[in-house]
């Protein structure tokens, strides 16, 4: 009976160790439009056992599914990260969603931030600009 209790406790401890993962707390997160690009920036207060951060984008042209667009290795707490998304012009959507996922050292993925933006695609901007130029 004692062995069964010991084995049971050991199983609980090992299972908990397999499923435990680090922790991330963001200090800041921002998406801003710069010309035809979107700049995603964030910094961390806590960053434990982080392998990488994944940036994902969702548009109507991606069938409303998040698609990974970039991966950045974790650098440790207090670090600032940035990514310039210059591929948005390929989308005709007026809604753009970004998601920041963290990938821990043990392979566990966790979504830590979602952000949505409205925009006019650069194809429309260019078309509108050329139309205005024609009638001036």
Features:
single chain, 136 residues, four-stranded antiparallel β-sheet, three-stranded antiparallel β-sheet, 2 helices
Question: How would you sum up this structure, described in words?
Answer:
The chain is of the alpha+beta class. The chain has a single domain, classed as Immunoglobulin-like, CATH 2.60.40. The protein has helices spanning 2-19, 122-134; strands at 24-34, 37-47, 50-58, 67-73, 80-85, 95-104, 109-118. The strands form two sheets. Strands 4-3-6-7 form a four-stranded antiparallel beta sheet, with no helix packed on it. A three-stranded antiparallel beta sheet has the order 1-2-5, with no helix packed on it. The termini are far apart. Mean pLDDT is 79; it is low at 11-19.
Radius of gyration: 21 Å
Ranges where pLDDT stays below 50 over 5 or more residues in a row are 11-19
Portion of residues in beta strands equals: over 45%
Count of the separate structural domains: 1
Topology pattern, helix = H, strand = E:
HEEEEEEEH
Strand sequence of the main sheet, in spatial order? 4-3-6-7
The helix tally amounts to 2
CATH arch. level architecture = Sandwich
Total strands: the figure is 7
Helix content: 10-25%
Major sheet summary line: 4 strands, antiparallel
Distance between the termini: 91 Å
What's the quick description here?
The chain is an alpha+beta fold and 136 residues long. It is 23% helix and 47% strand.
């Amino acid at each position: 009976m004692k062995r069964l209790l010991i084995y049971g406790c050991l199983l609980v401890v090992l299972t908990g160790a397999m499923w435990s993962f680090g922790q991330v707390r963001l200090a800041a997160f921002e998406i801003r439009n710069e010309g035809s690009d979107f700049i995603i920036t964030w910094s961390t207060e806590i960053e434990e056992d982080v392998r990488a951060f994944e940036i994902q984008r969702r548009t109507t042209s991606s069938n409303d599914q998040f698609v990974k667009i970039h991966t950045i290795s974790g650098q440790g707490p207090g670090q600032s990260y940035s990514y310039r998304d210059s591929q948005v012009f390929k989308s005709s959507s007026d809604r753009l969603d970004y998601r920041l996922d963290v990938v821990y050292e043990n392979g566990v993925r966790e979504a830590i931030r979602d952000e949505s933006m409205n925009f006019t695609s650069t194809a429309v901007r260019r078309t509108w600009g050329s139309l205005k130029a024609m009638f001036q």
